[in-house]
Specification:
Order of helices and strands: HHHHHHHHHHHH
Oligomer: single chain
Structural class: mainly alpha
Helix content: 55-70%
Number of strands: 0
Distance between the termini: 40 Å
Number of domains: 1
Length: about 260
């Protein structure tokens, strides 16, 4: 692996993976087996040509090896670790940090095949603490691609499993802060759908989270979020929860709530 961007990503991701694996209590054997597949994926991405037939062949080989690993070579609980890594690789495959997007089949393998299967698999059970550690692993990125469904998939992991229903107020708050940090990093805010989904996750007991949302802004100071901040800080009702609920409804119907 001679390309500097690939080596940078590999080293950065490996450092974060070691922390995540430790927090999720992944065995060393499973860690090695899983990392072998992701190293192979990254190598194939770097070496890929624009030849469609060759890409299909590589895609099938990687899929076969992946299925072998998850079916017989690792413990079931290690699926908790594989899924966020798939999301992370898919995001970087869809940005400009590595190579151009013509390596389309490898992106499709992750985005349209492996990720949806695991995201929707309710037998992959995350505790609230597990999910928090997943968001720590995912929160810092070179670039958040609008084409990777990165945020959507993170939120869907929670939605499919109802993770926050079992979470303490503190763990929920810290986890959503990590997800909001991903939104903060986005340079292209063509919609605020994921932010609206986060608003829907807020409950009456989340007073600290509500205060955090009132002060939230994205890094590039994009206009939609400036307007949302103004709405959330309007002085409408004395009852804090009723006040917040009404403002969420206003944002839901706001004409910029879908696209800016």
């Amino acid at each position: 692996m001679t390309n500097n961007s690939y080596l940078t990503f590999k080293n950065d991701e490996l450092a974060k993976s070691k922390i995540l694996a430790k927090e999720l209590n992944i065995s060393e054997t499973d860690f090695i087996n899983i990392q072998f597949w992701f190293d192979l994926l990254l190598l194939k991405h770097e070496e890929a040509t624009s030849n469609h037939d060759e890409q299909l062949k590589v895609e099938k080989e990687l899929e076969t090896k992946f299925n072998e690993i998850i079916s017989s070579e690792i413990e079931r609980k290690s699926y908790l670790y594989i899924l966020p890594k798939l999301l992370h690789y898919n995001n970087v495959f869809n940005d400009a940090f590595l190579r151009s997007l013509y390596v389309s089949r490898l992106g499709a393998l992750l985005r349209d095949n492996l990720i949806p299967k695991l995201v929707n698999d309710k037998t992959i059970v995350y505790s609230p603490e597990d999910f928090f550690h997943v968001t720590v692993y995912l929160k810092d990125n070179y670039f958040v691609s609008p084409n990777s469904n990165f945020l959507e998939d993170i939120l869907k992991i929670e939605n499919v499993r109802g993770i926050f229903k079992q979470a303490t107020i503190k763990v929920k708050f810290e986890t959503l802060k990590n997800i909001l940090h991903i939104i903060y990093q986005k340079t292209y805010h063509h919609d605020i759908i994921c932010f609206k989904k986060i608003l829907k996750l807020v409950s009456e007991t989340d007073s600290e989270l509500i205060g955090y949302l009132k002060n939230f802004q994205v890094e590039n100071k994009q206009g939609c979020y400036k307007i949302i901040k103004d709405i959330l800080n309007l002085d409408l009702f004395k009852d804090n929860w009723n006040d917040f609920e009404i403002k969420v409804q206003l944002i839901s119907f706001f004409r910029y709530s879908q696209r800016c």
